[in-house]
Amino acid sequence: MPQTVCSGTMFTTPSGFSPHLACAEPGEEEEEEAPQESPGPAACLTDGPPFTSASLETLIQNLVPTADYYPEKAYVFTLLLSARLFIPPSELLSRVCELCIKQQQLDQSPLDTVKVRKFGPKILQLLTEWTETFPSDFRDEKMVGHLKDIIRRIAPCDEAYWKTLNQMLQKLNQRLALMSQGEESFFKVSLNASSISDKLVAFKTKPPPIQKDILSICNDPYMLAQQLTHVELEHLSHIGPEEFVQAFVQKDPLDGTQQPSFSEQKKTSNLEAYVRWFNRLCYLVATEICMPAKKKQRATVIEFFIDVARECFNIGNFNSLMAIISGMNMTPVSRLKKTWSKTKTAKYFILEHQMDPTGNFYNYRTALRGAAHRSQTANSNREKIVIPFFSLLIKDIYFLNEGCANRLPNGHVNFEKFMELARQVGEFMTWKQVECPFEEDRAILLYLHTAPIFSEDGLYLASYESESPENQVEKDRWKALRSNVLAKT
Known about the structure:
This protein has 489 residues and is mainly alpha-helical. Helices cover 60% and strands 0% of the residues. The relative contact order is 0.15.
């Protein structure tokens, strides 16, 4: 069914986290673990981290490169992703720069040229990773100011650092411009997407269609599945990893204060736009099924979408697959018994079984693991496609966040929780980088984004006009809906 973002009511069972996570129960006391100030804290992330919790200061210290040390990439991603729950990114970068200045004595004159030349490439690498992975952080002018300041301090030892900085900033600005264009295009699409007036179906005999239907635009299930994959990957490409964290900003359990939300930026707009797309596709499927006047036509549309869903499954596009199944499971569609009796449903039941929520979506998770394995060993972009059922991914992250405290009773950051968070988000980031291998069909894409759709009441009206109400509850609802529409006219 259609989904909402970050609503606890859409989540039923916790899932998706490591059985070894330190999830503090209310009143549970834990022994204070001495933070390990090892020179390479994340060197063992793949084999088992040297610590599962530490103070925020210790974690930041271990993020700072030196002439002889650079943190593992997985550690960098984990801390840059999760630290924003405690301090703004600008403050984190400020602390990193302060530690660099202190450790490398960058405020002294003259500088130790040999030492700084060893340190310079490492701090540039850290800043490059930051700008590439979390570019939206640098919409804040303070971030760019800190970046320029640290380069200004090391540039006397090698003027090439300025060139590297300029290249970094050029790429960053290009990325931010593309992100802004994407956000604006999604906004325009949402304005253009319209709803069919409910009064169109408030008649015993339906008027001739005033709009095109999906089969007149595309009657090839594989082609439509390809175009749906285009839409999905386009949405995914605009979702930054930080949106998963900022969607669940909560109060600090230690002092009850609200953690910074950094509301001056559109922190979860792309994530929300993606969920709106899922809902739109659900309603589009239901609208296309309920619109035809004859049950044979409705049965044809149902069978078409079953084939589209099957092709989505084969491609690895599980989000569109679930949206299509959800649309066909909406009550205005599922109640059309005479229509369904004319439909070949064997393939539909197989697909429905794959997305069955039983066992916390066990069948789907098995299929997702298969698609992920195929992606890892793939030789073409076609085989690399993995588009997860997005609302379930959000659900998993929600329960990881709610089920495990950000801080332990001793005040340490629960770093093991954030390593699991980074694993889940990092996997998603890998999948979203795949370039869509299918050729675009502008007519189909335009239809998917702008074709009018029924509201929920409109769907019920169309459904009742197609197949009469069967009980008193349905009759009363039909009468009320018709009265409301006629009153508006």
